[in-house]
Amino acid sequence: MNLILFGPPAAGKGTQAKRLVEERGMVQLSTGDMLRAAISSGSELGERVKGIMARGDLVSDDIVIALIEERLPEAEAAGGAIFDGFPRTVAQAEALDRMLAGRGRRIDKVLRLKVDDAALTARIAKRFAEQGRPDDNPDSFGVRLDAYNRNTAPLLPYYEAQGKLTELDGMGSIDEVARAIDEALAG
């Protein structure tokens, strides 16, 4: 099964993906993790990514797709992938569909964790005050949330038209969201 966890930053996608990896043996394909790993590997692709990111540029869709394609055999052997942080645009979704189709695969489900922007912002502000994590800075979080709402949320109709979108309440506890995900995957 290939699954996309969809939702804004801090919606709990990473937490739920890690749980699915542990419980179901799936492979989490997080583009951020893959970019950092490519750089650390010292590979030719990693060197290209390092240069792009050092300039402050966005890594192209072609490179991100190449990173994902590199990891697909591992995900296929494990019985499926959890896409976390990808796709972010309709163009990326279309490229992912083509790549998977070329391997006789597809996205099976897209689970959208619906959350309240104001509650997320409050959660981040509290976490920043308690833990001081730089990525939880309320100002930078607002920028990330705006970018999600502007650029990534338009993917919803794309997957809805394919009959793959399931919307879940992401405002519950970790266990409540986990139960809702498990029910969606069983159904």
Automatic annotation (TrEMBL):
It catalyses: AMP + ATP = 2 ADP. ATP binds at A10, A11, G12, K13, G14, T15, R127, G172. Pathway: Purine metabolism; AMP biosynthesis via salvage pathway; AMP from ADP: step 1/1. Keywords: ATP-binding, Cytoplasm, Kinase, Nucleotide biosynthesis, Nucleotide-binding, Transferase. Residues 30-59 are annotated as: NMP. NCBIfam families: PRK00279.1-3 (NF001381), PRK14527.1 (NF011100), PRK14531.1 (NF011104), PRK14532.1 (NF011105). PANTHER family: NUCLEOTIDE KINASE (PTHR23359). Monomer. Consists of three domains, a large central CORE domain and two small peripheral domains, NMPbind and LID, which undergo movements during catalysis. The LID domain closes over the site of phosphoryl transfer upon ATP binding. Assembling and dissambling the active center during each catalytic cycle provides an effective means to prevent ATP hydrolysis. This is Adenylate kinase. It comes from Brevundimonas balnearis.
